Amino acid sequence: MELHILEHSLKVASIAKEGIQICTHGLIKLAFLPSKTRCKFFSLTETPEDYTIIVDEEGFKELPESEHLSVAEATWLALNVVSGGGSSSSSQPIGVTKIAKSVIAPLADHNISVFMLSTYQTDFILVRERDLPMVMHTLSSEFTLLRVVNGETVAVNSLGVTNGFVKPKLVQRPIIHPLSSPSNMFCVTSLNPDTLPSVATLLMDVMFYSSGVKEPAGASDDSGHIRFFSFSLIEGYISLVMDEQMTRRFPNNVLFTSASGELWKMVRIGGQPLGFDECGIVAQISEPLATADIPAYYISTFKFDHALVPEENIQSVIGALRTNESTGQ
Amino acid sequence: MSGPKPDILWSPHHVDRYVICDSELSLYRIESLGSTEAKAGAVPLSEETAATLLAINSDTPYMKCVAWYPKHEPECLLAVGQANGRVVLTSLGQSHNSKCKELMGKEFVPKHARQCNTLAWNPVDSNWLAAGLDKHRADFSVLIWDISSKFTPEASVPAEKIRLSSGDTDSGVVVTKPLYELGQNDACLSLCWLPRDQKLLLAGMHRNLAIFDLRNTSQKMFVNTKAIQGVTVDPYFHDRVASFFEGQVAIWDLRKFEKPVLTLSEQPKPLTKVAWCPTRTGLLATLMRDSDVVRLYDMQHTPTPIGDETEPTIIERCVQPCETIIGSFAWHPSAQNRMVVVSPNRGMTDFTVFERISLAWSSGTSLVWACGRHLYECSEECGAGAAAAAERDVATKMRERAQSRYGHDTVQVWKNHVLAGGNDPQLKSLWYTLHYILHDHHRYYIIQCFPYFFGNKQPLLYSGIKNIVKSSTSGTTESRRCWSGSERPAEVVRYLSEERGLALQLCGWIRCGPDINVEPFLKSLEQEGEWERAAAVALFNLDIRRAIQILHKGASFDKGDLNLNVVAMALSGYTDEKSSLWREMCSSLRLQLSNPYLCVMFAFLTSEPGAYDGVLYESRVAVRDRVAFACMFLSDSQLPRYIDKLTNEMKEAGNLEGILLTGLTKDGVDLMESYVDRTGDVQTASFCMLKGSSGEVLKDPRVQCWIENYRNLLDAWSFWHKRAEFDIHRSKLDPSSKPLAQVFVSCNFCGKSISYSCSSMPHQGRGFSQYGVSGSPTKSKVTSCPGCRKPLPRCALCLMNMGTPVSSCPGTGKSDEKVDLSKDKKLAQFNNWFTWCHNCRHGGHAGHMLNWFSDHSECPVSACTCRCMQLDTTGNLVPSDSS
């Protein structure tokens, strides 16, 4: 297995819902006009609370300074797992589940806080830049570490930082934070960048104007319906996570759909904002899923974490997590 | 967004078909225009060819890539990769073949939709179609489909799950289960099957090139690189692969896959296509975005890069097939170096890349050039006659001249022009000039008359008239002379000085010495039948009667020109009245005279005193005559100006007549340089400059270059004897060129050089001549080392110590031969030289050895099986010159 340390230096920011109009200019530029910026990594996730932006330093310049914009203080680096050998087995669990045991658990064991971003194409594990030596040390035994420098991938040697680090004892990880599962179903999809201009206005509508008009607030919240939308444009690849209802507004043949037409349900983690320092949250969720062999997407936002699991598995997921929860307490 | 850029594909088997794909597929047939008229609807592609549209297929929207089925049957089967990752089989202009019909419209659908970037048919197992897709987090990017797999209702996917893909299954045949899935969680941008094995697939992945082995899919060989686009295998060298990234092409050797064996120079814009030429080895064509040229890299002479770190040389060039920007191109599969290019607006051009022509001159006259797969040889046709001889190649001329000992006559220097064939007026002038300059009487005369010249740094000896005129110190006297033989006094002013006299001597008009009588010169001209020139010289010496007499003689001579009588008649009517009818008519009619000398005679007579441009600038008159004329009639201020001007003219033209003016000075080298540039005649240049062996000139690098080139030329012609003669000649004239001894014979015992130790001991008397041959056997018979007194080795054949002269052939020694040996001359002969084999170290007298090896191949020493003579590669060459 290879672990690629990508060259993007990332910022994680939150824009308050009422302040979004200040930032729309910059966001539209980052999302739809990639040739006008030097930004290579952009992700926007809308939750009922706020908009979470993950953007590299070049892209961050496009955002204005504002009281509505809060930025996590650290600089983050994205890690990406690439399976080295090609395997013909297709029954393997995907996404966070696959890397739960190899990456996420060891990092949690070493008290390294991670921030997850799953996309249609891959999973990014964001770690603080200052944690990188520790990350490399932790993962060097499992992975071939490769660092991307100016677009070229070069092998990096694990730094000799073993001294002073005690291998922690593996412990059971109980689930600490409350979970909730909204009723709506989600679709993880993508589209060809060439066709992006043709749906740009629709996407803008979805991103910035969907609040208030389409779904009267309150009514849907009560029934467990959540507004969640994620758009990312990373190294030329577009990834979308949106409500299944919303996909119907797109023209035929624009969105990439899987042959099986899979749909996902969400598990939302956290009763109050999780912050950036606590570690082990992703591990708490992903380890039981990995044990149960259930594929998942995992999207961290500024305040809460979100896991997406196949709709048919939602009951077993909730069951598995609940079990974990009870053993923890 | 602009529409898709057109791409072009040649049919792999039908050499006249190709497909243009942009938003739809269009099949064209290409045909030569020939004699028949272009059919209606045919699009001209070049002067000879036109294309006819056969079929259009627009069934497959969102087309991203296309691949043509590699086998003959079914023909025109195409796989189209779409923007959503589906691969559809389709065809064009197809006869309804049953096998093909079954395949038409068959779709291969990946689990997760994303763009299909590339397609590649397996060339051996042609049911296999590899598709390269974009990245998906949970899916594979390289899918290998089996096009013959039967449609199976997808049992694995419950029907109600097919929600988003509803409406797609109506077309019937959908395959969702690939044969192989490779490259999980990665993107694939380019693919090609490796000819090494049908189960090896090379893929350009997101950040690396990977070789997948389908026999063991868990293994892959990969290398991290940015150059992952457009992987393509050299059809002539199956381990060589090209790939590119933006503007840079990397060439890989699969046997040494760690890094590119070379990267080609980076282009300012991204490349769009890279393709090996299928009809010629090592030719790679690349196309840059928005470019109107195809850039070609010729790796023809690349040494196979096995374990060799040195970068091979590549010849890079551009071809411009059409006026417009090129959208794409495709090599013709079989026609040599042919391609069709298509512009973004679908303009098509049929184009053949012209081969580079490599050309080689032989040292003789033949010329060889290679173009494509043809080799052409061209040699000179030897026509007969003087005109043909003058037209011949300078190499032929030089070769003939070398054989006729051209340049070697040091006594009668002028004769060299006869040795050169005697038909080149410039050479004639040159050698006469050198003759006058080098003539003993002339030297003697200069030393007598101009002793002060030798005080100068530059001796006047080899200087031309230019320096002589400039150095004028003695006063010039003017004389108004009467026409001899005419009663009328002449207005003409004639100038005299010692330098002018010397110049006239160099021009050959007067003999050496104080005598300024021109009569002997006139006599010699009459003998050679140069009547007009003689008459002109007589006239310039103000002897009009003699001039008329000469013309008369010329007219009455056997086969003489009777018109000369008429000229003589006109001449006799000379009058110096300014406004006479004679003057008026002569000055206008003289231009119609074809002979330049007759023309200048009348120009002289009709011009104002002191203004003789009609004579001085008549280029058909020999330079020496014009210069002589100038020395007689131009004033001290006019003369140097005229000489300078003429000198520069000669220098520019590389006219050897100008050597008269420049002499063998730096100026002369300049003049010779332009002569050599014009003719390539290094032979004349070498000999000429050797004659003027006054240090400075010979040291000029240009002169050394000519001499070296001439020597090389003689070597190339195998004229080794001529080369040796030339070297001897050269060392006589230029002692500094004598090479130092480079080979010494050293004693086996004390290690000292035999010849060296000998010459360092003056009491020993004579030194050795080269290769240790003793001076005289009667005085000191050197059969032992002069240093340590140990005997020298013995000749393997006569068993005598070396240094003993050869006594003819061993066994047949005669007494009368012995007598001859007392002569030093005989001793110095080559037969007495030491010679030995560098391999077995046996040897002996050169004469004996030559004799032995004429009918033996092995060394004469018993039990030694060394084939000494065969080891000597130069020893088997035969010189081409006879001497």
UniProtKB/TrEMBL annotation, chain A:
It comes from the Eukaryota. It comes from Paramormyrops kingsleyae. Residues 9-69 form the CASTOR1 N-terminal domain. One of its GO terms (cellular component) is cytosol. The keyword Cytoplasm applies. Residues 177-259 form the Cytosolic arginine sensor for mTORC1 subunit 1/2 ACT-like domain. Keywords: Cytoplasm. Residues 72-140, 261-322 form the CASTOR ACT domain. One of its GO terms (molecular function) is identical protein binding. It is found in: Cytoplasm, Cytosol. Belongs to the GATS family. This is Cytosolic arginine sensor for mTORC1 subunit 2. One of its GO terms (biological process) is negative regulation of TORC1 signaling.
Automatic annotation (TrEMBL), chain B:
Residues 398-633 form the MIOS-like alpha-solenoid domain. It is found in: Lysosome membrane. One of its GO terms (cellular component) is lysosomal membrane. Transmembrane segments: none annotated. Its main location: membrane. Residues 747-869 form the GATOR2 complex protein MIO zinc-ribbon like domain. Belongs to the WD repeat mio family. This is Missing oocyte, meiosis regulator, homolog (Drosophila).
